[in-house]
Amino acid sequence: MEKPKHKTAVYLNGRLIGFHEKGTALVSSLRENRRTGVISRQVNFAHFPRDRALYINTDGGRARRPYIVVENGKSKLTPDIVEKLKKREISWDYLVSNGIIEYLDAEEEENAYVSTREEELSEEHTHLEIDPISIVGVTVAQLPFPEYNSSPRITMACAMSKQSLGLYASSFNIRMDSRAHFMYYPQAPLVQTRPYRNLKLSKRPCGQNFVVAVATHYGYNMGDGLVINKNAVDRALGRSVFYKTYETEERRYPGGQKDKFEIPQPTIAGYREEAMYSKLGEDGVIFPEAEVKAKDVLVGKTSPPRFLEEVSGFGIAEEKKRENSAVVKEGEEGFVDAVLLTESPSGNKLVKVKVRSVKTPELGDKFASRHGQKGVIGLLVNQEDMPFTEQGVVPDLIINPHAIPSRMTAGHILEMLGGKASALSGKIMDGTGFNGDTEEGFAKILESYGFKKDGKERLYDGISGEAIEVEIFIGVVYYQKLHHLVSNKMHVRSRGPVQLLTHQPTEGRAREGGLRFGEMERDCLIGHGASMLLKERMLEESDKTTELICAKCGSVAVTDYIRNKSYCPLCAEADELYPIEISYAFKLLLDEIKAIGVFPRIMLKDKA
User: Among 51, 131, 177, 224, which one carries the catalytic annotation?
Assistant: First the structure.
């Protein structure tokens, strides 16, 4: 179909349905009909005069946003309508049906000229934002003063607010979550946003208000390190509890065999030390409030052998069992909080054991404010050694001044002022983006209580007792404890399990693995010329093996364990075999090269 000149093409859900003489008149008539309720409010129209195209969208799954309609530079949401709304005489549905508010999709937004504030309206504007904070999503909306921070920090603050510990569910004590953190004394922030209050997030708080000083402390808060008041930690600042649930069930196997919960007998295969079963009851299940440490048995369980039973000397097939108990993982410890006995969906007996451990803030634990200012504890200082103000206030936390200018998190500084003003006045401050309380307002409150309006104070060194020469900025900030706890990550190994294929140490804390010594670490040792350390890391501590190599043909010898004899598979001789130290991974490489039909040789010569 040839497109007529000066006519507007009309598309419905992306399909061309025809042409119209006057596209501009058509789209304004369609919008008027939608606002008066003749056309469904779900339909959107996008007109592009330059392309002479009108797109009508009715398909599902479009992202749509509500806007207040503006006509002749005036908002249709008049003060008397707002009053009626407050009195609940009219509803949201009334506003949409009467064309006061309309939903636009991403395409129709291209035709809209939206004002963020009513006082900025002009004749050209077509729509008005209900509230400027609605520009951002729900996670950003609950961050205080986001418009004062750089965008990467807002992104970080969003990501970290999801990792914070608090009251995640009021039924936490009867839930059996596989992993859960719960903060002892969570607080509502002193600086809140309107969305935070509307969503009633203070009923699920996830942080505490810290008194924060911006200063250095003998280098222990260098970079993103944090210095924290040890006495405040002893008073349960940042204290949380970690729950971990272990579960096991009596499974049924083909052939009528099944698992059994019991205290395993010493005769069975894989029996652990007797002390590990000492906390079990008669039914093989541990008691609540029992103290457990790594490798302790929580539920004693025996399983049938993996393969069919062997016939004993008397010709009777005796039933052999193997140990298959649920045990506390390596690196975990605590108290049994609850034991749940129930049935699995398949009808088998199921036991869940919840282990509780208290996590007191320690060196390496991660904290973050709501401005993307994250850091780990570098030092816990006794209260008497911390700096203090003239009133004797000791900060809970000391953050490094260098963390502020390059990150451009002015919101953090503003929250410190707001938190201080809130603590003095006893009123919750508003940190809503684009519409929150101002720095001037905080300054007035601080001055009225006899503090300097810039939030700075004279501090005294707790160690020397002398006044610190410079004035230090001090305020109150809502800090979140994140679930990256050093006690759940700390990992060390001397010897331990190795992989069957490569003979190298296993990977990861859960598998008692080694620490990866990578390509770049190797480059460092080469650069330092530390050849013996390099040999120790890459060979002795990893997959060192000794193989017999044939001096004649250079192939790896094979061992006949029946005749207890090694020989060269090519020469069939055993007189010129020499033991050579190589990495097992290299021996594996040789085997894999042989498997594709290439014969590698190792040429030997005397050390000269």
Answer: 224
Cβ–Cβ under 8 Å, residues 549 and 558: no
Q: How far is CA 183 from CA 363, 378, 482, in A?
A: 18, 21, 10
How far does Cα 467 stand from its chain's mean position? 41
Q: What is the pTM of this model?
A: 0.87
Buried b (16+ CB within 10 A) or exposed e, 280-312: beeebbbeeebebeeebbbbbbbbbeeeeeeee
Nearest partner of 125 among 115, 116, 134, judged by Cα: 115
SS (H, E, C) 320-349: CCEECCEECCCCCCEEEEEEEEEECCCCCE
Tens digits of residue pLDDT in 421-465 = 999 999 999 999 999 999 999 999 999 999 999 999 999 999 999
Domain C-terminal end among 481, 501, 516 = 481
Contact between 302 and 268 (Cβ < 8 Å): yes
Is there a catalytic annotation at residue 224? yes
Q: Are 544 and 584 in contact (CB under 8 A)?
A: yes
Number of domains present in the structure of the chain: 5
What pLDDT, in 10s, does the model give residues 120-179? 999 999 999 999 999 999 999 999 999 999 999 999 999 999 999 999 999 999 999 999
Is 527 in the same domain as 575?
A: no
